[in-house]
């Protein structure tokens, strides 16, 4: 499933209330690690191991209300929600670390 882009706080709140796993990449265009991990995140979104997960990207500069709501401070940070609850979060720049983080999402 391709990565979708969150355009508003209302959209974010609607997504996280769903009874399914959603992973958000909080990124910034000026942050080297965000640029480095963005194509990896895109690739993982199409992997069958995570076909039950929705993938979203949030530009931290364009969506400060969403950033505040999620409690994120550094890009790139990845946050998983399910049923309105924050399930897990990881901040880092290693593709292997991102893969390990995604592997912890229940099937």
Automatic annotation (TrEMBL):
UniProt xrefs under Pfam families: Thioredoxin (PF00085)
Alphabetical list of Gene3D superfamilies matching this protein: Glutaredoxin
Domain of life assignment: Eukaryota
Domain Thioredoxin, residue spans: 1-107
Family annotation (InterPro entries): Thioredoxin-like_sf, Thioredoxin_domain, Thioredoxin_H-type-like
Name of protein: Thioredoxin-like protein
Lineage per the UniProt record: Eukaryota, Fungi, Dikarya, Basidiomycota, Agaricomycotina
């Amino acid at each position: 499933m391709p990565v979708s882009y969150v355009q508003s706080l209302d959209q974010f709140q609607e997504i996280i209330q769903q009874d399914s796993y959603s992973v958000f990449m909080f990124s910034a265009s000026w942050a080297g690690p965000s640029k480095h991990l963005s194509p990896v995140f895109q690739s993982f979104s199409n992997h069958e191991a995570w076909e039950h997960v929705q993938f979203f990207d949030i530009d931290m500069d364009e969506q400060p209300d969403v950033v505040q709501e999620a409690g994120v401070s550094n890009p790139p940070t990845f946050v998983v929600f399910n049923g309105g609850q924050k399930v897990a979060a990881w901040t880092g720049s290693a593709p292997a670390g991102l893969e390990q983080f995604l592997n912890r999402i229940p099937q």
